[in-house]
Prior knowledge:
By secondary structure, the chain is an alpha+beta fold. It has helices at residues 39-50, 68-71, 74-80, 93-96, 99-107, 118-127, 202-213, 231-257, 264-275, 286-299, and strands spanning 2-4, 7-14, 17-25, 29-32, 60-62, 85-89, 136-138, 143-147, 150-156, 165-169, 174-178, 186-187, 193-195, 219-222, 228-229, 303-306, 313-316. A 7-stranded mixed beta sheet has the order 1-2-3-4-5-6-7, covered by helices on one side. Strands 8-9-10-11-14-15 form a 6-stranded mixed beta sheet, covered by helices on one side. The chain binds zinc ion. Zinc ion is lined by residues 65, 67, 70, 160, 179.
Amino acid sequence: MELLPNIHQIRCPYANRNVFVYLLTGERTMLIDTALSDSPEGSILPYMADINLPPDNLDYILISHPDTDHQGGNDPLREKCSKALFMAHTLDAPLIEATDVLLDRRQDYSDYGIPMTPKARDRVRSLCHATTSMDVTLQGGERFRLSEGWTVEVLHTPGHSLGHLIVYDRKHRVALIQDAALGSMVPEVEGKAELPPTYRYIDTYLQTLHQLSSLPIDTLLTAHFPVMRGAEVQNFLSLSRAYCLNAERLVCEAVLDSSEAPGLPELITQLSDSLGDWPKRRRPMLAWSFLGHLERLEAHQAVRRIEGDPYVRWTKR
Ligand SMILES: [Zn+2]
């Protein structure tokens, strides 16, 4: 769907969730994210055919960050869009170029008591066909002239990943932020909570939320939420921040109040219901943000890590 002149949103279904990728069409064209392994055939290429954009005319494919549902279609698109330059942040490129690196460095919390079964790893491998090397790695601050009078900026917005990138269109006051801010939950197609927010690095996530709230944004486009406009934009950013600060407080109190030195499984069981009403099977996804909070609390010397058997735990200092 063309949301604004030359800014297209393409919906890629992922189980009961939406993944939105975006296509910017000027004299040069840019695709933001490739969704899942079946999304190019199922959603992206058919959309491009509908707007008469031959695959060979795609110039840039920007991968906002490493995750199954953002890089999974890389290989199929590399095959079809032979001229497109693949781009990602330098810090995130290694995880975007190899699914096993993505699994080991980002998605598998086995050392923290949240095992990832071989079957779950195989499922990620089947959804994520990403062995494509990045042609260009970015740092944030790059500008892409898409047509006369229309230049967009790439900004570094870490927090969900170390190298998360967004595209900012100053002319139309549109920010295409993918997962840079995650509200208080990630919704399924009907808007109900499906996942907890999966930010991972707290200091940078909070800085990113601040950075986004100081940009003039009339339209906020994300990978999983409906389009936000006007006051909804600041409300969403404030909600993202409030959720994060509340989660940190709860995690901190739970560790300080416990005589048992909890690990991630105990903290998740104890706190999940106070944070959101996602389905029970999705609770383990709290590992991402909770580990971020615990690392930050360690850095601030509020809690102490106990390495070891069978998994890492935390206690008061
Ligand atoms: Zn993500």
